[in-house]
TrEMBL record:
Gene3D superfamilies referenced in this protein's UniProt entry, alphabetically: Vaccinia Virus protein VP39
EC number of the protein: 2.1.1.33
Span list, region Interaction with RNA: 124-129
Organism from which the protein derives: Rossellomorea vietnamensis
Protein name, as recorded: tRNA (guanine-N(7)-)-methyltransferase
Residues where S-adenosyl-L-methionine binds: E44, E69, D96, D118
Binding site for substrate: K122, D154, T191, E192, Y193, E194
InterPro entries: SAM-dependent_MTases_sf, tRNA_(Gua-N-7)_MeTrfase_Trmb, tRNA_methyltr_TrmB_bact
Highest rank taxon of the organism: Bacteria
Keyword Transferase: yes
Keywords tagged on the record: Methyltransferase, S-adenosyl-L-methionine, Transferase, tRNA processing
Amino acid sequence: MRLRNKPWASEKLNEYPQYVVAQPEEKKGKWSEEFGNNNPLHIEVGTGKGQFVTEMAKANPDINYIGIELYESVIVSALDRIIEADIPNVKLLNVDAKNLKEYFEKNDVDRVYLNFSDPWPKNRHEKRRLTFESFLKLYEDILVDEGEIHFKTDNQGLFEYSLQSFSHYGLLLNFLSLDLHNSDFEGNIMTEYEEKFSSRGQRIYRSEVKYPKK
């Protein structure tokens, strides 16, 4: 993905502290205080332009959402969506997902969403995939017991790899679809990529897995 430089993005992100958490490490273990309630917390790792996390927050006002995105020039579009939606139960973090433990502690998060993550198809880049075992360990370290990962992609290779990675890690499969948009699954909220790929007739793969009870 070619990123368009937006030199003004950083300044705009700083103008909306009610939506963009500038020092998330200070909120570790205190996210209920940040949101002002004890509702479940769901995070989307790689939120992109924010369509999914914004629509999920609108559809589920009793759940708190955090969209995590590394690139300022991308997350600023997510901020625009949230400003327009004017909803209190969604926040953004402009941080690197590999540092999640700096911002969340065990039991902070109830669910992780991975939507259309970069497939990093070359073998030498395997460790960068968000379903690689080191990331699965990272999610486990911040999720509640029996916490869940919900995963969607259009990339068959990444999907097959991820199912193997989930299995090797010992995760339990709750749901699997090899063609989501031609299934009876209800309540699907699409991402920007999902709309684009599905309009071309590409399959959308989806799985839900959870960590075993300790």
